[in-house]
Amino acid sequence: MEVFSAVLAFAWLIYVWETYLSSRQHKIYKIVKDIPKELTSVIDSGTFEKSRLYALDKSNYGFWNGLYSQIELTLILCLGGLPFLWDLSGKVLGKLGCDPGNEIVHSLMFSFLGNIFSLITDLPWKLYYTFVIEENHGFNKMTLGFFLTDMMKKTAVSEAISMPLMALIIYIVKVGGDYFFVYAWLIVFIISMVLLHVYPEYIAPLFDKYTPLPEGDLKQKIENLAKSLDYPLQKLYVVEGSKRSSHSNAYMYGFRKNKRIVLFDTLLEDYSPVTREDKEEDFKKEDISQSEDGDATGESKKKIGCNTEEVVAVLGHELGHWYYSHMVKNLVIMQFNIFFMFFMFGKLMNMHVLFSGFGFPNFQPILIRLYVVFSFLFSPFNEVMSFLMNVLSRRFEFQADEFAVNLGKKQYLKTALLKLFKDNLSFPVADWLYSTRHYSHPPLLERLRGMDDVKAKRE
Ligand code: ZN
Questions:
Q1: What is the pTM of this model?
Q2: Is residue 72 annotated as a catalytic residue, yes or no?
Q3: Which end is more exposed in the chain, N or C (fewer Cβ atoms within 10 Å of the end residue's Cβ)?
Q4: How many alpha carbons lie under 13 Å from residue 162 in its C-beta half-sphere?
């Protein structure tokens, strides 16, 4: 019981710390009403105010959603939600004619019912976020039907992946002996490698349409850039992210000699989506100043995205990530982390006192032990880890920017960042403590300054 109370108290401590950080950032959104000096020439006051209000809305949402989740979790744990769900899944299995005594089957049912529960309790929050907040700020492009089918598809895919993995891990913990943590890690490693191949190729297309980038100036320039760096670019896709939202992005994936680059259509100013019915309407050029009044129609017709040189500069940055093997480094750290967590789980899993307070005084299912150890006992470790990973990720971003600058793309990368900043209505001012903890990318101003600091390494 003492362990249980300590775990709960610690969960609240972390919650209070995170809320304190968010409140610092919230205060910034409230009081900073003037554009930072460095940006006055590039951002107009209308855009700045819009980004401030958007940030405030998201921050308020985050506060209430966080508070709700924390209370929900506390109630579930204190009122015996876990043992209740465990019994319930046993009964459901009995009704279905399955053997509830089989721990693996029982665990799968438990997790399935638990996921359904969170799907339902999260739904109002997600609906509010998408159809009120994103909608009000002109980002949401989904219809309710699209949203719901998308959610169903996501759930089905994630269940199809997580169920067999979970069954395997429970099995390995049961029969793996003293070195089960090696096998458990190996399984996770193999499955994540397989998913890295399979996901972009077979799973992502279930959700979005990927079309090869049409022949033209942009394609030629990207291919030339890739060639000049010996980047083995095999395929170049555009994904129609504009069906869901108008936030923009680009990413790369693939192993060794088989690399692909994916650009969001919202990143490209001159790309018109193949499946969009209102093509013509959407690409009417409109002076940005005209949409200043902020009405919804002006907003949706506003030209967004980057021009060819800017997109190439963004890719110069992305290729910097590849050049410095940032993804591989992240992957290696992640694998060490998983290995360490399984190893520690092995040390803790037989300390029955850890799990009895969660409502399992006698039989302690492996899934429950995994849940308690990974989500609660590791939470201080996870907190530190996520902080360190963000520090590392920000270093990587600076490195990638530097790489692009050394390719001679400084001015275009700068204007691209500014355009993306405007298109996504990101707020350019950040509290130092909040951003240190949460930002995986350095704040805009720091990136612009960082690029100015790069001493050209090439003549
Ligand atoms: Zn980056």
A1: 0.85
A2: no
A3: C
A4: 14
